[in-house]
Amino acid sequence: MSWFQRQIRLQRRGKGCHLVHDEIVKQVPEIRDYKVGMANIFLQHTSASLMLNENCDPDVRRDMNMALDKICPEDFPYIHTDEGPDDMPGHLKSGIIGVSLNIPISNGRLATGTWQGIYLCEHRNHGGDRKVVVTLQGEKK
Amino acid sequence: MSWFQRQIRLQRRGKGCHLVHDEIVKQVPEIRDYKVGMANIFLQHTSASLMLNENCDPDVRRDMNMALDKICPEDFPYIHTDEGPDDMPGHLKSGIIGVSLNIPISNGRLATGTWQGIYLCEHRNHGGDRKVVVTLQGEKK
Amino acid sequence: MSWFQRQIRLQRRGKGCHLVHDEIVKQVPEIRDYKVGMANIFLQHTSASLMLNENCDPDVRRDMNMALDKICPEDFPYIHTDEGPDDMPGHLKSGIIGVSLNIPISNGRLATGTWQGIYLCEHRNHGGDRKVVVTLQGEKK
């Protein structure tokens, strides 16, 4: 049984859903040491989210961003508006989508399905880079 | 400390929310070996979801499906429409609901509340059977 | 490697989003014994949710509750209405937001970001106190 934990950073991106799967995996090559285990990927922010979704067609990410804007619009009668019209919808999307992914590890790889990849959903128009804590645990090879 | 991992299949179902709690638990009887631990149930797909919700009244599952269709309708202005009108709403629902459940294990049983059961939310009109990776870890009895 | 599990209770609250971070942490001081690990916080109910979100401005919690009511309104054509108009929207919100949080532990503390705190989102007008199973695992100091 072995534990590993590292804080990594995801580069600053504009508002939208971005495929960051490889950017994350490259920063934790230790995944390949685990025969069976669990990876937790935890975003330390409240106006962005982590999501598993379709890893191939960029149109899915565009549609996802469009649909999230329709479900969580800027024109709800929010009170918390000091930080701009994109702030409270960002908290709302973050709460609905979530910030903590748990992905099994099998034979040194994340056991995602063929079409699954990790998205960073950036909900702010001008967010910064984003901090992520990756925690690995399991039985090593 | 002991790890266990198995890929299981959930039989093909029509669009809707389905109570699959027993179908999952029966395929991993090893749960009963753990005194205290954690079960991760991970769906390897992007147009279906796993949800914990009310395990008794089938009307809740019908209402859930109806409500998800209202929140994530087929008539949003999607670009990604090649795979049919149910495809992009399926990705959207999958992203919002999620595909990875973490349920504590206590004394050989999933420590769910009295009214909680695992749903497979199938978002496609004609999805196939669905692959799930179950990972158990904990202290054995 | 060490496991810890305790069922705790969150006091009864009215409908809305409530910051319960300290109420939870105070009931599991054992967190401070872990150098690196994982905390799972699991709500055993189907009409309330656990969410990580902004821990500072109470207006965010008010806006969150308002927005969830708009996304999951009471006037959808629900069948399951025996327990009142707030019941099925509660199941819906619970399914969308989720009931199981996974938060890494680093150096004896939950590794949440500066602005993150745990919310109990109570979806019923007259819910009772809420049961939560907290499971800690990791390497002790």
Task: Describe the structure in brief.
By secondary structure, chain A is α+β, with helices and mostly antiparallel strands.
Descriptors:
homotrimer, 141 residues, alpha+beta, Jelly Rolls, 5-stranded antiparallel β-sheet, 8 strands, elongated
CATH topology of chain A: Jelly Rolls
Indicate the radius of gyration of chain A in whole angstroms: 16 Å
What share of the residues of chain A does DSSP label as strand, in percent?
35-45%
Give the overall pLDDT of chain A as a whole number.
97
Number of helices of chain A: 3
Order of adjacent strands in the largest pleated sheet of chain A: 1-8-3-5-6
Content-based structural category of chain A? alpha+beta
In this structure, how is the largest beta sheet of chain A organized? 5 strands, antiparallel
Largest chain-chain contact? A-B, 36 and 30 residues
Give your account of this protein's structure.
The structure is a homotrimer of 141-residue chains. By secondary structure, chain A is α+β, with helices and mostly antiparallel strands. Chain A has a 5-stranded antiparallel sheet, covered by helices on one side. The first copy, chain A, has a 3-stranded antiparallel sheet with strand order 2-7-4. The first copy, chain A, is built from 3 helices and 8 strands, in the order ββαββααββββ. Chain A has helices at 21-27, 58-71, 87-97, and strands spanning 2-10, 16-19, 34-43, 48-54, 100-106, 109-110, 116-122, 130-140. Chain A has a single domain, classed as YjbQ-like (Jelly Rolls). Chains A and C meet through strand 3, helix 3 and strand 8 of A and strand 3, strand 4, helix 2, strand 5 and strand 8 of C.
